[in-house]
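User: Reviewer 2 asked us to show a designed sequence for the structure in our supplementary figure. I'm pasting the structure tokens here. Could you produce the per-position amino acids so we can include them in the response letter?
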């Protein structure tokens, strides 16, 4: 098999309107590199002519490879399949709708040649997307960034370049719940950014309905974080402290001769009961967080390289 230097990986779900333009743009830009490349297109259970278009393109151009999934598994699953099929020294993941301009991939390749293993394309602007989508995405990224460890880079999507070794680490991750944005940060090695203006979709409609967006967002929030699971314990402890402070205040007031009606004592009593039950629940949540980390079963470390290994 001929050695390929670059692999372009794309997931496509009902993208008949945009795929021909996608292949034309990507091939014309990657041809300028004058180095062997492949395009791996994963058809994520499309119900339109996506599969036919892929068949035609594969017949016409041997550098294009297509995989048809048995049903719609979601973009993240389709991308993992594409990464597994890829053979290039550098792998560039992009969307089919040309919102990830192939020209930007050339800048990413320059960074890879400078020795970076993961290059994130960062969106400077997102014209053509609704105010709702832009502002919710912004809030989401900020929050996800705060609670994650390692940090999920802000304003980035799946448009990234991975070196071969970064790709191999990603593929080998055992967890089934895939969220590449977080996992790419987790991989480590040298990472950097290229900034670009994100254009509007070239044709067709977004393939992310509200359900899929919510699933993606929750996966994103928890992929590198167990913070949400620690909240009940924190709330519980805070409630316990507040109620004890209220009790002490009431007692001091009573000593000073200011007697509060009996009903007033019910409030800190209720808060205390709430606090005790939430902190007890929180303890089991802390165990759940640990179980979650164990079940993800990620490697405990990734080796970059070794010195004097062969001596
Ligand atoms: N996609 C996919 N499976 C899905 C949903 C989306 O493979 O279930 C692909 C889609 O074809 C596109 C990419 O994921 O190549 C990003 O989707 P889209 O452009 O609709 O998302 P948006 O840019 O609106 O967030
Ligand atoms: Mg898009």
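Assistant: Here is a per-position design you can include in the supplement:
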């Amino acid at each position: 098999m001929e050695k390929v230097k670059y692999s372009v990986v794309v997931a496509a779900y009902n993208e008949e309107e945009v795929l021909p333009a996608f292949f034309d743009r990507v091939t014309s830009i990657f041809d300028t590199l004058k180095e062997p490349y492949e395009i791996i297109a994963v058809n994520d259970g499309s119900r339109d002519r996506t599969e036919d278009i892929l068949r035609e393109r594969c017949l016409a151009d041997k550098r294009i490879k297509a995989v048809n999934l048995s049903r719609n598994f979601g973009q993240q699953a389709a991308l993992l399949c594409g990464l597994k099929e890829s053979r290039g020294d550098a792998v560039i993941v992009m969307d089919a709708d040309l919102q990830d301009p192939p020209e930007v991939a050339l800048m990413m390749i320059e960074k890879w040649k400078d020795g970076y293993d993961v290059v994130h394309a960062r969106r400077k602007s997102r014209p053509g997307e609704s105010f709702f989508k832009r502002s919710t995405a912004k809030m989401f990224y900020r929050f996800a960034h705060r609670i994650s460890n390692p940090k999920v880079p802000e304003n980035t999507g799946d448009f990234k370049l991975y070196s071969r070794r970064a790709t191999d680490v990603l593929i080998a991750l055992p967890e089934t719940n895939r969220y590449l944005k977080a996992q790419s940060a987790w991989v480590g090695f040298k990472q950097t950014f290229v900034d670009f203006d994100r254009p509007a979709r070239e044709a067709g409609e977004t393939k992310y309905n509200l359900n899929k967006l919510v699933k993606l967002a929750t996966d994103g929030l928890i992929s590198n974080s167990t913070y949400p699971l620690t909240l009940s314990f924190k709330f519980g402890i805070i409630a316990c402290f507040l109620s004890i402070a209220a009790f002490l205040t009431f007692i001091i007031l009573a000593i000073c001769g200011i007697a509060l009606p009996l009903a007033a004592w019910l409030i800190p009593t209720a808060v205390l009961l709430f606090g005790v039950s939430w902190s007890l629940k929180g303890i089991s949540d802390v165990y759940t967080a640990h179980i979650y980390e164990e079940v993800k079963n990620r490697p405990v470390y990734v080796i970059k390289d070794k010195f004097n290994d062969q001596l």
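For the response letter, you might also mention the following. The first helix runs from residue 19 to 31. The radius of gyration is 25 Å.
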